[in-house]
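Risk mitigation, structural track. In case the binding assays with adenosine monophosphate fail to produce interpretable data, a predicted complex structure has been prepared as a fallback.
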Amino acid sequence: MTNSLVIYNTLTRTKEKFEPLNPPFVGMYVCGPTVYSDVHLGNCRTFVSFDLINRYLLHLGYKVRYVRNITDAGHLEGDRDEGDDKFSKKARLEQLEPMEIVQRYTIGFHDVMRLFNTLPPSIEPTATGHIAEQIEMVKQIIDNGFAYEREGTVYFDVEKYSQGNNYTILTNRNLEELLANTRDLGGQDEKKGRLDFALWIKAKPEHIMRWPSPWGWGFPGWHIECSAMSSKYLGDVFDIHGGGMDLAATHHTNEIAQSQACNHTSPAKYWMHTNMLTVNGARMSKSAGNGFLPHELFTGSHPLLQKGYSPMTVRFFMLQAHYRSTLDFSNEALEASDKGFKRLMNAIDLLDKLKPSATSNVQVGDLKQACYDAMNDDFNSPVVIAQLFEAARIINGVYDGKAQATQEDIEALKSLMDDFVYDVLGLKVEKAETDDIGKIMEFIIQLRSEAKANKDYLTSDKIRNGLQDLGIQLKDSKEGTTWTKA
Ligand code: AMP
Ligand code: ZN
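Fallback model:
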């Protein structure tokens, strides 16, 4: 397969031909979750998007070293370098060790990633496991003259850096405006410049997560972990660095500055940013409190949901939007994805039942190339799905006897589905179990409605209560009865 993959590079704001530094190897670093609470669906969207990217690179034959970190230290409450760290706060509230918090939410994150059928990263380093590397990097940045210490905290000197480097290279923001819009230094503030950010932070007496350093007991700033871990596992310069769009302006901007100041080079050739999952137009985020947890979606227990949706339906819903477009979360959109996903999987089921004809009146030859063209155009999954729907239409037509396909056509359709539905889009057949339960529940709900219609309330209540004991909740509305599993 000749590679004509083109990637939108945030750094250059253009689509560029993908030319890895050291083919067939590709180094990809993606900023992972902060594990002080459950990941929400917005976080999942970003990780599913990079799973698509990873899968397609693997499909093209690249040997991808995919590094996705776990942030388990150093994330403070505010945007500024002050306040409590989120792990210590949660640990205090729940009377747990911070590492118990980290363990609980890391396991939860892996469970969710497995449900979404994402491939695990090649390396999943943690911030707390790489304190020594972070300290070394901070020391080097100080030695190179781009950082200074104040009272046990080390700050990156943005003004000094900006004299010879473009600090806002990633977002193209105007540095003067940025300075003007940044809040005034408080009198007690130790920073030299308003945009200076902490590389290492002195631990207050109550701060539980702390390590010894040349500057006393403290903990790393958030940005330094990714610079230290990406260079450790992928080298000072690697191919792709990614994360959600919200990370570009601060976290990734600071990562570039740190690498440049330490290693005299920008870390990544291609910067990729995924767009946000929104709810009623607002970004889904932990702090805004509008985050849906994946399990609330799978079970339908979230108050804004009419019913539950399976992990593959949700994955399909995410892939129906291009990774650089926003995706708004709604019952209607999920319902449409549910139908679409079933249509596709039903068509795949029919493939083995198709009877080949001697002649053909369907066009399947170009579908696969159209899927490659779409993926090669900056991973355009919605266009791939449109081609797959066309394949499903052809399969249904042949099955219904309205069209004829040769054995060769049928083989081509099978190969298309194998490559793109399973391998590239990462969809899979979900256990028939949920479908079976669905059908059984439909039947029970029907029995209960009949009992109610006959005024046999003893039976209808018995059904409702019996199901409740089994953890199944019935919800009656004008449209009928729906059910959810606790
Ligand atoms: P966090 O755990 O908050 O550090 O976020 C983990 C990843 O999820 C980062 O790459 C974020 O950019 C991304 N992210 C956060 N909120 C959203 C959202 N609403 N939609 C898509 N990605 C998000
Ligand atoms: Zn990062």
